[in-house]
Amino acid sequence: MKIMATDLPLSHWQRIAEQNGIQRRTFLYRLKTMDAKKAATKPLKKGGIKPIATSKRQKSLAAGLDECALSRYRREHPESQLSDEAALAFLQARKAKLQNTVRERALAAGLSPQLVYHRISRNWPLDKALNTPPMPTSHAARIGGKARAQQKRERRQQRLQQAALKNASTQ
Hints:
Distance between the termini: 94 Å
Radius of gyration: 33 Å
Number of strands: 0
Strand content: under 5%
């Protein structure tokens, strides 16, 4: 009687996979889509780790900048003769200088750096972002309360108008 490949226990195929240089996890993953014999004997793909891509986006991200930093620099400075690496180093230095300066100035003004960065992202001038005190919580709550009351009045007015239109259409 001939023994079929499907009759052999899984541990047998696992040993063969290890002899073929296939790790246990790879073997178990392959079992989801292959039979045990093929999972244990199919050679691994050659190539290993793919080389790091050299796109401007990936270089910018690897340097800790936003993904468009290098492209934006090239677009704004077409006459620049700097290599990509030199341009990234320049952008990193400029970012560090700006961050440290804004951070230090924010802390010296008694503001959190996050608040100042948020204001700058909303196109506030740097001086205004640093010199405007944060809104007190009570004031923010008062503004929020007034806004909610206004919304409530508007919704009530809309309901009354809809009811009046409904009554006018039924008569």
